[in-house]
Each structure stands twice: as C-alpha cells, then as structure tokens.
Amino acid sequence: MIYREAGQYKTTYDTDTQIFPIAQDRYAMLAILLIAFIVIPFVATPYIFSAILIPFLIFSLAALGLNILTGYAGQISLGTAAFMAVGAFASYNFMLRVPGMPILLAFILGGICAAMVGIAFGLPSLRIRGFYLAASTLATQFFVVWCLTKVPWFTNNSASGVITAQQIEILGFKFDSPQEKYLLVLGIVCVLALLAKNMVRSTVGRSWMAVRDMDVAAEVIGFRVMKTKLTAFAVSSFYCGIAGALFAYCYVGTVEPEAYNLDLSFRILFMVIIGGLGSILGSFFGAAFIVLLPIVLSMIVHVTGLPNSVTSNVELMVFGGLIIFFLIVEPHGLARLWQIGKEKLRLWPFPH
Amino acid sequence: MSDSAQRKIGDVILKADNVSLSFGGVKALTNISFDVREHEIRAIIGPNGAGKSSMLNVINGVYHPQEGTITYRGEQRKDMDTHAAAKSGIARTFQNIALFTGMSVLDNIMTGRNLKIKSTFVEQALWIGRARREEMENRRVVEEIIDFLQLQHVRKTPVARLPYGIKKRVELARALAAEPSMLLLDEPMAGMNVEEKQDMCRFVLDTNDQFGTTIVLIEHDMGVVMDISDRVAVLDYGKKIGDGTPDEVRSNPEVIKAYLGAH
Ligand SMILES: Nc1ncnc2c1ncn2[C@@H]1O[C@H](COP(=O)(O)OP(=O)(O)O)[C@@H](O)[C@H]1O
Ligand SMILES: [Mg+2]
C-alpha cells in the first residue's frame, strides 16, 4: 500500500514523460542524492571511499557507456577497456602537453578522443554483426593497448609505462582526499547519467532501440541505420572514455595501459548483463553487485574460517553461474527483477 | 462498395514501368507495369509467391529492380531509396510484423514520427527547448492515433506481450504516425478472425477517407478486396495477369482461370 500511484493522475504529457513519473520514486531518488552528496561525505571512511564508492561510481559510468551500445543499440562490444584507456591517456596527454589545461576540459577532450576511436572501430558494425562484431571489438581491445604500450609518446617516454596521474585542481580547489575525489566522481556520474536518461527517452534513444530490434523496419520508417549505429558507438565510447579518465585520476592514481586489459572489458560486460541490458538503473545495480561481491565473499570466508584461497574461486563460480542465469532466464537483469518487485509492491497486500 | 463517389481520386502519383526483379535464378517480378492514383485504394492480389510483397519492396526501395523505371510524383528513376521514400511520405507495414519488440506500444508509434524531429542530439541530451517541445507535440499526435486505432488500453505495454491482431494494429499506428501520403499495407488482415478483420477494414477505410491517404493493399480475402478497393492488380508467378476495377477483374477470364478459379 505504501508504493501506490493511486490519485496521481497525469494530466499533461510533460508529467507523463518525466524521468520518475511516480511520486514515490521521485522522493526516493531525491533521498538517495541527498544521502550521497551530504550524508556519506561525513560518515564514510577513507577505505569505503577508495575501495567501494569510487570504483562503484566509475564502473557504473563505464557500464552505462557499454549499456548504451549493447543494451540500447544492440551492438556487442568486448573493447570497453580500450575506450577507457583512450580516455585516460588522452586526458593525461592534454594535461601534460597543454599549459593551463583545466582538468574537466581534459576529461571531456579525453571522452571526445575515445568517441572518435569508437566511431572508427564502430565502422565494421555497418557490415557485420553478432559474433563477428564481437571478434572485431576484441581486436580493438588488443590493438589499442598494444599501441599505448608500443608508442612511447603516449606514456611520455616513461620507462615502466606506469605514470602518476596529475593532481586534480578545479578553480583553485585541490581534490586530494578520497572524500573529495568521491564528490567529484559523484557529480560527474550524476550529470552524465541524467544526460543518458534524456537521450533514451527522446528520438536518439528510440533510434538506437529501433535499430537493435529490427533494422530493416528502422530504415523504412526513416532512421538512418549507419548514423544511428555510429552515434551509439560515439556516445558509448565517450562515456567509457570519461570513466577511464576517472579510473586513472580518481581511483588508481596512475595511468598505465595494462590496467585497461581484456579482463576489465569482461568485468564491465558482466555488470551490464547482471544489472540489465537496456537499463540505466541496471548499470548501477550491476556495478554495485560486482564491486560488492568479492568484498562480501571475503567477509563470509573470514567469518566461517575457510582458507583465503577459496574466495577468488568462489567468486569466479558465482560470477559464472549468475551470468548463465541472467543470460538464459532474465536478460534484463537485476533492473527487471527490481521492476517486478515494484509491481508486486504496488498490488500488495492484495495478490491481484 | 466503397464510398469512392465522395472521395476525389486524383492523378497517377506512382508509376512502375516494365519492372523486372530477380533473385539469382528466381524471377520475382517480370516486366510489370503498375500505377497508383492519388487517394485511391489500390489492391494487389495473387497466390503466394506471386511477387506481391516484392512489388511493395520495390515501391519503397527495399528491393532494387534490375530493369524498368519508377516514376514517383513526376520524377522518373531506376529504383527508389528507402530513406527518400520515407521522407517523401511513403509508409508501410510488413507481412511478418516488423515491430520493435523491446519497446512499448507508445515508443513504437513515437518512432514513426522520427522524420518530424528537428531538434539536435545535444538538445535531446539536455532535454531543453525544441527537444522537449517536439516530444510533447509528437506525443499529442501519437495519442490521437492511439485513440483512432483504439489502442489506449495497451499504450504502455511492451509489444512482445501483445496478441497478434493488436500487433498488426500497432504496426499500422506506427505507419500512420508519419502522416504518410501513401500507405503500403502487406496483408494487414492475414491471420485475423472475422471481427478483427472488420475492425482493420474500417481503420483502412477511415484512414483513406479522413486523411485522403493513398493506400496500396495486399490482401488474400477476396470479399475484403472486392469490397474496399477502387482498382485491383492481379499477379501470378511474377507476371501481371489482370488489372482494373473489382468488377473488371472478377470477370477477366485469365484471372478466373489462374487465380479465382482455384478457390
Ligand atoms: N529477399 C529475397 N531473396 C530471395 N528470393 C526472394 C526474396 N524475396 C522474395 N523472393 C522470391 O520472390 C518470389 C516472390 O515473393 P513475394 O514477393 O514474397 O511473393 P508474395 O508476397 O506474392 O507471396 C518468391 O519466389 C520468393 O521466394
Ligand atoms: Mg507476401
């Protein structure tokens, strides 16, 4: 009975197309934002910021980027980490080589570079799909990391290939502590999530879904399939690029090609599958799940006194099982389960 | 009979001349000449595999014939281009329903309005000014179509969950959302029960009547075809064997022999 939309009549199309048409959802979102921006900064420990919240937000952003491409536009990609790497290295080089470059601008330019690389490597999607496209994005993954490792200019001739990221300073304010970095990442992720939500509720989002579901029909009603696919690659890679830059500057603190390996691409793909293909909220669920799972498992192992080596093996088994479960039973992931839960709650306590 | 007396049937707006289309060795269309007049209901009939769907695909540029020309609104060309066809006001439905299965009824119909959108990507991402206004304006038009086709109760339902007959109606709604001047309908009543067929017939007639939409219709139900069409073309094995008013076609000996006789 608590979660009811009774009495909330939509009298204009404007209110019906709101991001959260149901009032309870709006209040819940507002509460989450207030907690995230105001309460958490005061109560969380540096460990929680650096080991849980910051990676959660950054992975959510990368998962959101991949979800735009795979979940909304239906183009599979195994090259997410490569686009993140482009964002990180481009931001680093802009900071390094352009005097007085503001860091936010460097992040945006990093995202734009990733978008351009995304468009270039998205071109094969115009001719191939499914498994073959996956193989081609896999090539992207290896090619980009190889390039960043082999061309010394990208790493500024650093012998080890590992570079410390420059300090973050915006309008004279330095973001040094985990708490400050958390707030920066949170702000960026909120803005980009809002923009993504706007895209998927307007024509550009519908063009992605149309091409995903039935490209001949999409073409016949006037969408340009080529432009639609490349837009999805560009936007997706832009998001991944920004996530990659934040990964370097706010999470690991270094810029190194090896951090953006295939393993990372797969982890983000798993977040999207578990969280829910074609759902913005699902990207956050998936990231939370994958960030928290190893932590929860190691706590269980700790409490039960099992050997530590069990953790990583159990983690892999749980992952594998869940991926298979979601792919077969519920391709819309946790986001769909959440929705079903809400529908049940709407009718509760009356079964029908 | 249709109320063609009230409607003003205009000039020929689309003309195919000696069109031939083949796939490898299969000749789907052989030397077909076919025209459509403005505001009329033009039927194409013929047994399965006769080339009816291929003809629609040639008209809106999904297929490109090897021979012949197509003249649309005074412009003669070798073949049509899908995007250009959509832009010039040709909309269609498919024989095997081609809806966007992952989207709601509302979103499916909204996609039909994509060519009316002027706002840029950035405006849409920011949900400001023109982008938001267009969304509301298009939503208003789409709601009118939803009312017209009586789809109010399934507005927010994902199309994958709908029964067959309703899906066909949603596909018509998506085509109508483009406010087309010419509508190509590929077996809109196939697989429907009598009541659903009657509804669909009424929607087709109303569309033609209220909006003056030119309609090219493929249909197997002879009763329906003879009832609502102004002119009927008969295809058989990729060749046109008859063309004219329903009465003319009904009494054409070749048509009776090849097609109607079989029923
Ligand atoms: N895309 C295609 N590829 C190969 N053959 C096709 C294709 N489309 C149609 N055909 C062939 O063209 C002929 C006419 O098909 P079609 O136009 O679908 O007939 P109808 O709609 O009258 O049943 C058939 O022999 C069919 O197999
Ligand atoms: Mg057919």
Write up what this structure looks like.
The complex is a heterodimer of chains A (352) and B (263). With 352 residues, chain A is an all-alpha fold. Helices cover 72% and strands 2% of the residues of chain A. Chain A has helices spanning 13-16, 23-43, 46-72, 80-97, 103-122, 130-150, 178-200, 203-213, 215-220, 225-252, 262-275, 280-304, 309-329, 333-347, and strands at 163-164, 169-170, 173-174, 254-255. In chain A, the strands form two sheets. Chain A has a two-stranded antiparallel ribbon. Chain A has a two-stranded antiparallel ribbon with strand order 2-3. In chain A, β2 (169-170) and β3 (173-174) form a beta hairpin. Chain A is globular and about 65 Å long. Chain B has 263 residues and is α/β, with parallel strands linked by helices. Chain B contains ten helices and ten strands. In chain B, strands 6-7-8-3-9-10 form a six-stranded mixed β-sheet, sandwiched between helices. The longest helix of chain B is centred in the middle third of the chain and has 20 residues, at 129-148. The two termini of chain B are 22 Å apart. Bound molecules: adenosine-5'-diphosphate and magnesium ion (MG).
H-E string of chain B: EEEHEEHEHHHHEHEHEEHH
Number of domains of chain A: 1
**Biggest sheet of chain B, strands in spatial order?**
6-7-8-3-9-10
Number of helices of chain A: 14
Q: Which architecture of the largest domain in chain B does the CATH hierarchy give at level 2?
A: 3-Layer(aba) Sandwich
Describe the secondary structure blueprint for this structure.
The complex is a heterodimer of chains A (352) and B (263).
Chain A: H1 13-16, H2 23-43, H3 46-72, H4 80-97, H5 103-122, H6 130-150, E1 163-164, E2 169-170, E3 173-174, H7 178-200, H8 203-213, H9 215-220, H10 225-252, E4 254-255, H11 262-275, H12 280-304, H13 309-329, H14 333-347
Antiparallel strand pairs in A: 1-4, 2-3
Helix pairs in contact in A: 3-7, 3-8, 3-10, 3-11, 3-12, 4-5, 4-6, 4-10, 5-10, 7-10, 8-10, 11-12, 12-13, 12-14
Chain B: E1 12-23, E2 26-37, E3 41-45, H1 52-59, E4 67-72, E5 75-77, H2 82-87, E6 90-92, H3 105-111, H4 121-126, H5 129-148, H6 164-177, E7 182-186, H7 194-211, E8 214-218, H8 222-228, E9 231-236, E10 239-244, H9 246-250, H10 253-258
Parallel strand pairs in B: 3-8, 3-9, 6-7, 7-8
Antiparallel strand pairs in B: 1-2, 1-4, 4-5, 9-10
Helix pairs in contact in B: 3-6
The complex binds adenosine-5'-diphosphate (ADP) and magnesium ion.
Adenosine-5'-diphosphate (ADP) is lined by residues 23, 26, 28, 46, 48-54 of chain B.
